[in-house]
Amino acid sequence: GLSQYSSDPRTEWELSAYSTREQVLEAVRNLRYKGGNTFTGLALTHVLEQNLKPDAGARLEAEKLVILLTDGKSQDDANLAAQTLKNLGIEIFAIGVKNADEAELRQVASEPLELTVYNVLDFPLLSSLVGKLTRVLCTRIKERSHKETTDTPVNTGPQLSPTDLKISAVTSKSMHLAWSPPLRPPKKYRVVYYPSKGGTPKEVVLEGAVSSLQLSNLTSHTEYLVSVIPVYDSAAGDGLRGVTSTLPLSSPRSLRVTELSHNSLRLSWKAAQGATHYLVLCSAAPDGAED
Fold this sequence. Notes:
The chain is of the alpha+beta class and 291 residues long. It has 2 domains: 2-147, Rossmann fold; 163-246, Immunoglobulin-like, CATH 2.60.40.10. Helix content is 20%, strand content 27%. The protein has helices at residues 21-29, 40-51, 78-87, 102-108, 113-116, 130-145; strands spanning 2-4, 10-13, 65-70, 91-97, 117-120, 163-168, 175-180, 188-195, 202-207, 212-215, 223-231, 240-245, 253-258, 266-270. A 4-stranded antiparallel beta sheet has the order 9-8-11-12, with no helix packed on it. Strands 3-4-5 form a 3-stranded parallel beta sheet. It has a 3-stranded antiparallel beta sheet with strand order 6-7-10, with no helix packed on it. Helix 2 packs parallel to helix 3. The chain is globular, with a radius of gyration of 25 Å. The N and C termini lie far apart (64 Å). 23% of the residues are buried. The model is unreliable at 148-156 (pLDDT under 50). InterPro entries: ECM_Assembly_Org, FN3_dom, FN3_sf, Ig-like_fold, VWF_A, vWFA_dom_sf. Keywords: Extracellular matrix, Secreted.
């Protein structure tokens, strides 16, 4: 599977899209470059929430590997998102090109770093990594798949997944989330929220006994994507997702002009709810307009 990212991540194809090497290579040849910013944390969250799910082709019994390829320093918190994936047993390989931040690559990648971190000076040099990286990936999959696990993570169904996300009490700066917990209470919940048009994702971690949250300090008149993900010792349940827009800030109303003189005037208006200051702009009317 492949996702490409800048300000907003975009799934190019799911894990279940192609079944042969030739099909994948053809898809790579037809890939169109997506320019823009470098929100690596948002991209890693996208991979977890969108690409590593059964309905996207992720098999429960298969090892989960993420290969991050980046040519710049992340503009959001990549380490927090990466740690979430690693806590769920997902292994991350980090490959940097040109202006990638070596320290950030080492933060994001899984241990042992000598096998999971790579950095080259330019894109043509990536070909020199193919042989080694292929051997390392195959070896890691074999090593991990041979480990005996006493409880196979099952991350679907009401047993492990919350239901019925309700978003209420929406204002210009806040909203309230509530959900019905799964039959088996999780260890924790991850609540991830961010503007749908791109922005730094924020995350709140709650104890598994809690099933509601007040989000505050939001941006007014903005559509937010919200995900509630239950986390167990060895698996993550399916996340609940919702989308809601915060209200616009209220405006002053009924503007009136009084007490006119040759060089002054007085303005009055009905107050805007919640406003702490007003900015008043005044300019001469253009030529020919009414005085």
